Amino acid sequence: MKEWLDQLNEKIESLASSKPMRYLRISGGVFWNLSLLAMIFLTTAVIAVGGIGLGYFASLVKDEPLRSKEEMREQILSYEETSEIYFANDIYIGKIRTDLDRRETSLANISPIVINAVMATEDEYFREHPGIVPKAVLRGLLQDVSNSSTQTGGSTLTQQLIKNQILTNEVSYERKAKEILLAYRLEHFMSKEEILEAYLNIIPYGRNSSGRNIAGIETAAQGIFGVKASELNLPQAAYIAGIPQAPFKYTPFTNKGEKKSAEGMQPGIDRMKTVLYRMQEVGYITEKEYDEAVKYDITKDFKERENRPEDKYPWLTIELEERAKEIFAKKLAEKDGIDPARFTEESNLKLKYGILADRTLRSGGYRIYSTIDKDMYDAMQQVTKDFTLYGQTYKKKVKDPETGEEIEEDVPVQTGSIVIDNKTGRILSFVGGRDHELNKLNHATQAYRSNGSTMKPLLTYAPALEYGVIGAGSPVVDVKFIRAYDDYEPVNYNPEQQLGIIPARQAVASSQNLPVLRLYDSILDRRPATYLEKMGFSRLTEGDYVHLSTAIGGITNGTTVEENVNAYATFANNGQFLDAYMIERIEDLDGNIVYEHKVEPVEVFSPETAYMMTDMLRDVLQEGGTATLGKSQLKFSSDFAAKTGTTQDHKDVWLVGYNPNISIGVWLGYSQPRTLFAFNNRYQHPSNRVNRLWANYLNALYDVNPEYIGTKDTFEQPEGVVTQDFCGISGLAPSSSCSNAGLVRSDLFNKNVFLPTEPDDSFVSSTTVVVNDGTYAALPTTPTEFVQMSGYGLNQTFIDRMLGKLGGDASRLLPFSSGNGVVTAQFNADSAAPEAVWATLTEGSLSWTASASSDVVGYRVYSMTNEGTALVGSRKAYEGFQMSVTPGVRYVVVAVDITGFESPYSNEVGEITSIPEPPEEEEEEEEEEIIEDEVIEEEIDVDPFESTVE
C-alpha cells in the first residue's frame, strides 16, 4: 500500500508540473480568491443587514416589559365570557346584554374536524414551529415592503392569540415585533394544547342568529348552527373555521339576526370551500369527503332568527342585570375595605363600583340564578297584554332623536305588579309595564309613587295595634277637622261624609280618611314611620316622620310596588319582614358559588298585631269593603286579606292582597301622573279596573299552580289574641248605660298589650235635641216640643278625648239617625233670635223656607185672627217645612232656636176670618180693592219662594 501511494504522488507531481496545468492552476487560483472575496463580502453584508435588522427589532421591542410566565398565562387565559341568566329551577333564559357573546369550552368538547380545519387554514405547521414561522414572517415583510397586492399573512395561531389577548389590532411594525417576541416566549410557558384551546375560545366569529357579536368556537357553533362544537359536521366546521379571516364579511347574519341574502352569503360559502380545499391538500380529508362537502347546502343549516332574552323578557333581563351589578358592587367595595353603606351618601363612590361591577358581570361568565317562576311570569305578561280596561291612551309630541322632527307618541295607562313568597321573600313574578319599547321604566321595581290608602295599615293601624292604643274593632272618630296653624282640612273619599264614631275595622274596610288621620295624630309622637324603615321603605325623609298626610299616602318620594307589597308580606309572615329578592345565587365559570342570598328576618310587629291587622283587612274583601269586586272575580277561594288605595284625583290606584303563601299588589296609573278618567264609564271606575286586573292576575297564577296560589291554609290566630266585649263608642269595658243604649260590641284584642278593663265613662243623663242634623243636649230653655227624647248624653271629658287636639264638631260623633238616644254634645247658642222665614199657602198646605240661622230646632205655626194669635202646631227642624192647615184662616210661621228664642213673624198667608161691614155706597168699590190686594199678595207669595228653591 505504501509503495502504491508513493507511485500515485509521483504521477500527480509530474502532472502538476506540466505546462498546461500551470496555466489552469493560475486561473483557478484567481477564481478561488475572487470567490473567497465575494463570500467574505456577502457574509459581511448579511451580518450587517442582520445586525441592522436585529437592532431595529430590538428598538421596536425595547419598551415591552419582561413578562413572567404567570403574568402571560393569566393574560392569555383571562378572556371575557358572557354571563347567563336563569329562571327559578335552573331554567335557562339567555345571555345578558353585552358587546360580545362568548362561552368557554375545552378541547375535549370540540370536534377534531374543527381543529383540523383551523390548523389547515390558519397554521399548517402549528405542531412543529416554536411560535413563529420565519419564512412566513419574511414573506409577509417582503409583501408589505413591496406593497404587493397579495397579502398571505404570516401569523401563527400563537401570534394571533398574543394579538387578541395581550396586544392590540394596531397595524405597525412595533406591534408585529412585539407579537413575534411574545409568541416565541409564550411557547415556552404553555403547551400546544393550551394555546390551541385558548385560541379557539377567544377568536371572533362574526354574528349569531340574534345579531350579537360572538367569539369562541362553542358560541359560534350554537349561535350559527344551533349545535355544540363537538357535533359540527365537516361543512359546518369548514364554514366556521373560515370566518375569522373576515368575521363580518363571512358571517351569515346581519346585525339584527336576520339571514343575509344569497349574494351576501356567497363570500362565506366560497371561504368554506377554500378551507375544504386546504384540508384535502394537507391530507386531513379524502378527495371523496372533499367533493361531498363542497356540494353540501350549508345554508339550510343556518339557524332561524332568535330573539335575544332582552327582546322576549326585556324587564326581567334588565332587572336581573341591575340587581347582579348591585351585588358585585358591594362585593368589590368590601374587597377594597369600603363599607357599601357609603354608597347612599357618596354618589361618586357608588358610580365607581357600579362601573367595575358592570365590567365584572359582563365579562366574567357568571351564571345568575333568579327566583322568577317562568310559568307564572309568562302568565302575568299574557294577562297584561289581554286586559282591555286600562283607560285612555293619550298622544304627546316629542322629537325624533335621529331626525329631530316632531312626532306623536302614545301615552298609555301603565301597570306594575309583583308576587312575593311570604315565607322566603322570593319574588316569584312581576309585571314591569305594558310595552317596553314605548316605556322602559319598570313600574314594579323602579317607579316611585304615592301609595294612597294602602299606607293606612302599614303606618297607622298596625302600629296603633302594636302600641296597644286600639283593638281590631276599637272606636275611631270619623269627623271633620281643620288644623288651626295651617288650615289643613282633609275629607273622606266622599267629601261630605262624616260617620262619627265607628269601629276601626269598618274604617279600614271602607277606607275612611278622617279616622286614620286622627288616630295617626294620636300616636305621631312615637314616630311610627320607623316601622316603614324596618319594612324596607327606602326613600323616607324627615318630613315623612312628622307630616300628618303621610298616613294617607302623602309620602314625600313615594314608594314602589315592590316595597309596598313587601311590607304587606310582613303581616302574612307573622310580623317578620323578609327583604324581597330576585337573585337566588351566582356561580362562576367553575360552578363555585360566589353569592347566595341569605334570609335575614327583621322583627317588625308581634304575631298578635299581624293577625289582628290581617283579620281587619279580610273585611276589605267582604260586603261593604273596597275590594269586594276583586274577590267576586276570583275563580277560587282562599284566605285573603287586602287593601285598596287611591291618590288625589285618581292619579294612582292600588290593590295589595295576600294569603298565607303569597302577597300580590297591582298599581295602575300614567308614568307621568295624571287623572285616570272613566270617560262615560267606557273603562269603568279606576278602582274597579284595578280590582279586576288584580283578580285576573291571581286567576292566571292559580291556573299555573292551583295548590300554591289557592291554598286552603288559613292564618292562625295566636294565643295572645282574644275576643272581648267593650263599649262601642269609648272602647272601654261596657257600662250599664252603654249596654242600655245597645252600643256593646265584641272584637279582637292583644291581651299582652291592651284589654278594655277600665269602666266606660262616656255617658251622662240628658235629653236630645237635633240642630242641623246634629244631636245635642237640650238646654234648660229649649222648648219641650222640640226635645227629641230623654236618654243619655256624652260626657264632655269623653268628647274632648275622642276629638283630641284636632277638635271637630262634637255633634257629629253620633248622628241623630243612629236611633240610640245618645246625645253627643252641648250646642253653643248665639243668644240671638233666629232669622225669619217666608211662607206660602196652597190648597190647604202651608209651606215655609228654612231659617238662615244655624241654631234652629224647629218651627211654630200661628193663626192670625181679630182676637190675636193662636198656636196651631210645631215641627222639629228635621221633620220638614210643611203643615196641613184649615182654609179660611190667615197664618204666620216663626223659627225657634235651641235657647227658645223665636224669629219675627213670617209674611201672613191665607184669608181674613172677620171683615168690617163697609158703607153700602162704597161696597162695590171696596170689593174691587180687596180682589186687587189678593192678586198682589199671590204674586208676592209665589215668586220669592220659587227663587229660594232654585
Distance between the termini: 160 Å
So how many helices? 29
How many strands, which pairing sense, and closed or not: the largest β-sheet? 5 strands, mixed
Overall SS class: alpha+beta
The largest beta-sheet arranges its strands as: 2-1-6-14-15
Using the alpha-carbon principal axes, give the shape.
elongated
Radius of gyration based on Cα positions: 48 Å
Q: What fraction, in percent, of the residue positions are helical?
A: 25-40%
**SS strand fraction:** 15-25%
What is the mean pLDDT? 86
Low-confidence stretches are: 816-821, 913-919, 921-950
Number of strands: 33
Q: What features would you highlight for this structure?
A:
38% helix; elongated; alpha+beta; single chain; 950 residues
